[in-house]
Design goal:
The protein is an alpha+beta fold. The chain is 22% helix and 45% strand. It contains 2 helices and 8 strands, in the order ααββββββββ. The strands form 2 sheets. A 5-stranded mixed beta sheet has the order 2-8-7-4-5, with no helix packed on it. The longest helix is centred in the N-terminal third of the chain and has 20 residues, at 9-28. The N and C termini lie far apart (85 Å).
Length: 115
């Protein structure tokens, strides 16, 4: 009894390799597809601080431009950023905004309380 397959083994292998290649390209382009990403690692949202000097740290991915409360800041080659701020007593709100080269934006807001 002879089995009839719709594709020859060579065609099946080429189709499989094509699918793997397309999936690999999509995986590598995931940051371009998702747009810019930003996170604040310190201080945490709602954190109570006892010193007026606050060091904000975070990570930005796929960002062509980054700002903290409207003023441009810079990242290192790994996308890490760090800025020192002086806060007044009470609640302070800091907003980090990133934009990619196509104009897509994301923001992350952090509130801290200085007592």
């Amino acid at each position: 009894m002879k089995l009839n397959f719709p594709f020859s083994p060579k065609k099946s292998l080429l189709i499989l390799l094509g699918i793997v290649f397309i999936l690999y390209c999509l995986f590598q382009a995931r940051f371009l597809i998702l747009g810019p990403q930003v996170s604040v690692t310190s201080p945490q949202d709602g954190e109570i601080v006892t010193s007026p000097l606050v060091v904000m740290r975070g990570l930005a991915r796929n960002a062509a431009w980054i700002s903290l409360n409207g003023g441009q800041i810079f990242t290192n080659e790994d996308g890490l950023w760090e800025e020192k701020l002086i806060v007044s007593p009470g609640t302070s709100i800091m907003t980090v905004t990133v934009r990619d080269r196509w104009g897509r934006e994301r923001s992350k807001t952090t509130r801290i309380i200085f007592k």
